[in-house]
Design goal:
Length: about 1050
């Protein structure tokens, strides 16, 4: 049906507002500039000049120009520029970047409101103006584009309609920066040679402050993103010169910005120890499936046409019958030839379809190249190209996602063909997000393999970076500028430069004089000191990159057994620790403890009697003992074994043992609301001292506090001689907990009880002795004093200082970096708990206990305080034996008796002091001890701002540790998902193989069967089953 028949139907219209809408796809402004650079590269340009011209009469104050020496366009090709979505570059096998026919329009409209294009080709000069200003002022909804053409030699118009030509030129003179034909011709003269293109963008877009988005004044040799600070911003996102340098994986076009050449890079040649890994996968099918569907559609249409032509030829042959006239034979021959041609075309289309179907099943191969960026180690990550054009940069994968030093500074490069992954329209991402994530996952696995192959971790990561001048603990600090370090870096990465004439890449031999040398923009092969590469005729040398292989971890039976044994040992240690500790939260929990004499074996009783007791340290002065700033004691487990007590005399008032136990029970019940204590009944080096009435024998064994035989008299004016017990009962302190000095004050009539917390000291297995002193007629004091040796305490403090150390641990013959997060004092040695920075989750645990000084552990340099791990910062306080704020009891004023304002102030000061101690951050300049003794005037000058700032930092570190654990769980879920996908893939392959076998079987049974798709096969089998029924 002729097109004229549709003239009355409605048509979809493209309004000029779409020009703005289309431009918003470019969130990254440099991506819009790169669209115009891509067009020059696709036009086979060898040079593009990007420059600015000052024009104060235009919005933004300057014009942005792109001039290339490509093939140019004639008037017909220029007309296709204004057709949205039309591109002559689109083909599956194309290596050109443009595919959508949209880059010039979207990119230029993102930069400014208007652009004008000048192009030369085949002795013609064509001008094109696309102006939103023109549409707004004229009130036009449709997109109208003036497109006049001149003869390149005579400057005469090339047109059959002079009226149209006159209107087009008038619009250009009115709405473009060039107001006359002379000025327009001057722009054509800027295109050197007989072909090329010049694009000028004007009326640039502005920011909210009225300034243009592009900064062309700060650096005359660059185009920068306005108001983008260099700190914390990748150079490619701030400088267009830096972005253009890595825009193409194999640059063959010279790029000049404001007359200065961009030193383009081949990233793989700029890395230390590059290594290539070949990766094949069947996952990338989206683009291939689209091409298969298109080929199937074309083959189906060609088959229908061929059948129709053959049917027509047979019908004509039957109709003519015996008619042998010349005209009849000519007509029949023409129809038969047409049928033969149609059949050939159908066969060709069918072969194409079959080839694409086979290609769909074939795995796609990609080349991953990894190397270390020793020039700027903070710039690491994956650079992902599509058809040699940069799409994504600095993508973190694999171990880099965990934020440790593992794989830090490593850069990866991959070029993905158009058939494997399709980019989005703005060329800043990929259309198929699922397949792109699969690509990143694969790169992460190969990155971990590369890290093993280069063996940086085995030699020591910090030592490796020290060799190249990275002397600061701050990862983002640049390397040292000393000449020896510059030479060291230059020796490892040879200079690679492109000839300005032949565009071939040359690798220069290392020379000491070239370490800080700046090469000219017009460098040519004749300047090469290498005699074999000093002329343009010499072939370009290919980079020799070693080939690596991804090795699957196949553990031997011995390694599996060793790993299993280690896990069992760790779990047993945890179980023993849980069994040894019993949390006591109430009086009922205390009664559950095994306190009977019969529960202890006779051997243990004998051992307890014969074990030599260590001498007790001297008692504390009365001034310290009477200080009312310590918490009430937690419940004390009573001894299991009881022996008869010797009779003793004392000047103290009568205190029956049941009454003492009752006082302990009351105090335990009152303190259990504020904090919980973990107590274990068992053997230890602690003994209790009991005070009894003179001339009496204490009988109830369940409420007796005993003392060792070696206890001596206390040289205190209020103390009296106390007989020693024949047998000592022992109480075992829980592991990784502490014993505290406790003061318990109780009135005789039981009408009032007051308790204040005391300090808990970090030491296991200490001797404690109980004293009772007569404070006054109505008060009894029971004190547990610390009697551990100073030597043991010093050893523990010294061992705890190891926390936070950077160490390397050998696991399965490989060295891994980590930090010491916990220290344990053993009988014969000190053990460290090391948390690794990065280890493969399927082969090595995240942390491990190692013996200090063993061959499997070695020290690294101490970390910087700002990079200390969160768990190290939080646990650092265990070493300091200061008042623990977790023991502070809520102090409430006594409103039953008379009080003064001074008492209220003192009470508020005490509450404030307790609050500050409770939330005191680690490493705060003021210690808890200083805070406890601080006066009210000192509290007024307390630095609260810095206090809360450090507290928030500690809280943030704690949250970060939780986030790390969550990330580990997410990684485990991803691993499960990967296994499920692998099983699904295997199942699909088995199903496809079964389908193929069924088709082959059916074809043997019935040769003329034609089944092309899985749906056809399913329908055919279902039909067979139905007919059989």
């Amino acid at each position: 049906m002729a097109l004229a028949n549709y003239s009355s139907l409605n048509r979809a219209q493209l309004t000029f507002e779409y020009l703005h809408t289309n431009s918003t796809t470019h969130e990254f402004l440099f991506g819009a500039l790169a669209e115009l650079v891509d067009n020059a590269r696709d036009a086979d340009a060898t040079r593009i000049d990007i420059y600015t011209e000052r024009r104060e009469d235009l919005r933004g104050g300057f014009m942005l120009c792109f001039l290339d020496d490509g093939t140019g366009m004639d008037s017909n090709e220029a007309a296709s520029v204004i057709q949205f979505g039309k591109s002559a570059k689109r083909s599956p096998e194309s290596t050109q970047i443009g595919q959508y026919g949209n880059g010039l329009k979207s990119g230029s409209m993102r930069i400014g409101k208007d652009f004008i294009l000048f192009t030369k080709k085949d002795n013609t000069m064509t001008c094109l103006l696309l102006s939103r200003t023109f549409h707004e002022e004229e009130g036009i909804d449709e997109v109208i584009v003036p497109l006049p053409t001149w003869n390149a030699r005579s400057w005469e118009p090339v047109t059959d309609n002079m009226e149209k030509f006159s209107i087009e030129t008038e619009l250009i003179y009115k709405y473009s920066p060039f107001k006359s034909e002379q000025e327009v011709m001057e722009q054509f003269n800027k295109i050197r040679g007989e072909k090329g293109t010049l694009v000028i963008i004007f009326n640039l877009k502005l920011m909210d402050n009225g300034e243009p988005e592009l900064d062309v004044t700060s650096d005359p040799q660059d185009i920068q993103m306005a108001e983008t600070p260099p700190e914390g911003t990748k150079p490619e996102r701030r400088s267009f010169r830096a972005y253009a340098a890595v825009l193409y994986i194999d640059p063959r076009m010279r790029i000049f910005i404001n007359g200065h050449k961009v030193q383009t890079k081949r990233l793989s040649c700029c890395l230390y120890k590059p290594r290539m890994y070949k990766y094949t996968s069947n996952r990338f099918k989206t683009r291939a499936e689209q091409e298969v569907k298109k080929a199937e559609h074309m083959a189906r249409i060609a088959e229908e046409k061929a059948r129709e032509a053959e049917s027509k030829a047979r019908a004509l042959e039957l109709r003519l019958g015996g008619d042998l006239t010349r005209e009849s034979r000519v007509m029949l021959r023409q129809v038969q030839n047409s049928a033969i041609t149609m059949r050939r075309e159908a066969d060709v289309k069918k072969r194409i379809k079959d080839a694409k179907q086979r290609a769909l099943k074939e795995p796609k191969e990609l080349n991953f190249i990894f190397g270390v960026n020793i020039e700027q180690r903070e710039l690491d990550g994956m650079f992902i190209y599509n058809c040699s054009r940069l799409i994504k940069m600095y993508e973190k994968v694999g171990p880099q996602l965990e934020g440790g030093m593992a794989c830090g500074g490593v850069v990866g490069v991959v070029d993905v063909p158009y058939l494997v992954l399709e980019p989005t329209h703005n060329k800043q991402d990929f259309a198929d997000a699922k397949e792109y994530r699969h690509l990143l996952k694969a790169m992460g696995e190969h990155l971990a393999q590369y890290w093993k192959d280069v063996a940086i971790a085995q030699r020591g990561i910090i030592k490796f970076w020290d060799e190249f001048g990275y002397l600061s603990a701050n990862w983002n600090q640049p390397p040292s500028s000393e000449l020896r370090y510059k030479r060291r870096r230059a020796m490892e990465i040879p200079t690679t430069i492109q000839c300005d004439v032949c565009l071939k890449w040359r690798t220069l031999p290392f020379q000491l004089s070239s370490v800080e040398k700046n090469y000219p923009d017009s460098w040519v092969c004749s300047m090469n000191p290498d005699p074999e590469q000093d002329r343009c005729e010499a072939a370009e040398q290919k980079q020799k990159v070693p080939l690596g292989t991804l090795k699957k971890d196949l553990k031997s039976q011995e390694e599996k057994q060793k790993q299993l044994t280690e896990k069992i040992r760790q779990q047993q240690e945890k179980l023993e620790a849980l069994q040894k500790t019993t949390p006591i939260r109430s009086q009922a929990d205390l009664k559950k403890l095994p306190l009977e004499v019969t529960t202890r074996p006779a051997e243990e009783n004998t051992q307890s009697q014969t074990r030599p007791q260590r001498p007790r340290s001297p008692p504390l002065p009365d001034v310290i003992k009477n200080a009312p700033s310590r918490p009430p004691p937690p419940p004390v487990p009573l001894p299991k074994s009881i022996s008869q007590l010797k009779k003793s005399s004392s000047p103290w008032p009568n205190i029956s043992t049941p009454k003492l136990a009752s006082m302990l029970s009351k105090e335990e019940a009152s303190t259990s609301r504020t904090h919980q204590h973990t107590v274990t009944a068992g053997k230890s080096n602690s003994a209790l001292k009991t005070l009894a009435k003179p001339g009496t024998t204490t009988k109830p064994p369940s409420a007796v506090l005993q003392s060792p035989k070696s206890s001596r008299e206390t040289p205190s004016p209020k103390a009296a001689k106390v007989p020693a017990l024949k047998k000592s009962a022992t109480v075992k302190c829980p592991q990784a907990s502490t014993t505290r000095k406790r003061t318990l004050n109780s009135t005789e009539d039981g009408s009032e009880e007051e308790g204040e917390h005391k300090k808990e000291k970090a030491k296991r297995g200490k001797f404690v002795a109980v004293k009772e002193e007569k404070k006054d007629a109505s008060e009894v004091v029971v004190e547990l004093t610390d009697s551990a040796g100073e030597e043991d305490l010093a050893e523990l403090k010294k061992a705890q200082k190891d926390k936070g150390l950077h160490v390397e641990v050998r696991v399965n013959k490989e060295w891994f970096t980590g930090r010491v997060t916990a220290v344990e004092m053993g009988k014969h040695a000190v053990r460290w708990k090391v948390k690794f920075d990065y280890v493969p989750t399927d082969t090595t645990p995240r942390d491990r206990w190692v013996e200090k000084g063993s061959e499997d552990v070695r020290l690294m340099k101490p970390p910087s305080p700002e990079y200390q791990a969160p768990d190290t910062q939080q646990e650092g306080e265990v070493v300091v034996a200061e008042p623990s704020t977790s023991d502070c009891v809520r102090i409430e004023p006594d409103t039953t008796g008379p009080s003064s304002s001074q008492e209220t102030v003192d009470l508020l000061v005490q509450i404030l002091r307790n609050c500050l101690r409770y939330f005191l951050p680690p490493n705060f300049p003021i210690s808890k001890k200083e805070l406890s003794s601080m006066s009210s005037e000192g509290l007024l000058a307390f630095p609260l701002k810095e206090y809360f700032k450090q507290y928030e930092v500690g809280l943030q570190n704690l949250c970060n540790s939780y986030q790390t654990r969550a990330d580990a769980r997410a990684k485990a879920c991803e691993e499960n998902l990967r296994n499920s996908e692998r099983k699904l893939k295997e199942t699909e392959e088995k199903l496809q193989k079964l389908r193929t076998n069924i088709v082959a079987l059916l074809q043997k049974v019935q040769e003329d069967i034609d089944i092309n798709t899985d749906d056809e096969l399913d329908a055919y089998i279902e039909d067979l089953i139905t007919k059989g029924d």
